[in-house]
């Protein structure tokens, strides 16, 4: 497991807050895992390290909703620049490579 500090993206903030609130009420990771119906390792790894479980049913039980995001190339192939999501455009602008 990585000891690097994790960067929590915005789509994980709400599930994490809910889980921490529920853990505070129940008192332990084990009781939280029993209440959610998942193995305690997935609860612990998600809450401490930000590791998203690979199984969709475990993700659903933990309240993680992952949407499929198109890549920049997929957007360019299908959408006009006006239809692209603003965060994607901002990322593309910040990470652009100058042409020679």
Question: Would you spell out the secondary-structure blueprint of this structure?
Answer:
Blueprint: H1 10-26, H2 29-36, H3 40-49, H4 56-62, H5 72-78, H6 86-94
Helix pairs in contact: 2-3
Description of the molecule:
This protein has helices at residues 10-26, 29-36, 40-49, 56-62, 72-78, 86-94. It is mainly alpha-helical and 100 residues long. It folds into 2 domains: 10-62, no CATH class; 68-100, no CATH class. Helix 2 packs across helix 3 (40-49). It is elongated.
What would the keywords be for this entry?
100 residues, mainly alpha, 0% strand, disordered N terminus
Offer a concise description of the structure.
The protein has helices at 10-26, 29-36, 40-49, 56-62, 72-78, 86-94. By secondary structure, it is an all-alpha fold.
Number of domains: 2
Helix content range of the residues, please? 55-70%
What's the alpha carbon Rg, rounded to whole Å?
18 Å
Distance between the termini: 41 Å
Oligomer state equals single chain
Taken in chain order, the helices and strands follow as HHHHHH
How is the biggest beta sheet arranged?
none
Measured by DSSP, the beta-strand proportion falls in under 5%
Low-confidence stretches: 1-7
Shape verdict: elongated
Mean pLDDT: 79
Provide a count of the helices.
6
Care to count the β-strands?
0
In terms of structural class, how would the helical and strand content be classed?
A: mainly alpha
């Amino acid at each position: 497991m990585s000891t690097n500090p994790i960067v929590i993206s915005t789509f994980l903030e709400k599930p994490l807050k809910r889980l921490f609130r529920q853990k505070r009420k129940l008192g332990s990771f084990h009781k939280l895992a029993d209440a959610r119906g998942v193995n305690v390792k997935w609860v612990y790894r998600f809450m401490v390290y930000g590791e998203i479980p690979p199984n969709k049913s475990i993700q659903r039980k933990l309240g993680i909703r992952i949407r499929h995001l198109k890549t920049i190339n997929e957007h360019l192939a299908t959408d006009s620049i006006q239809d692209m999501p603003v965060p994607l455009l901002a990322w593309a602008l910040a990470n652009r490579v100058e042409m020679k």
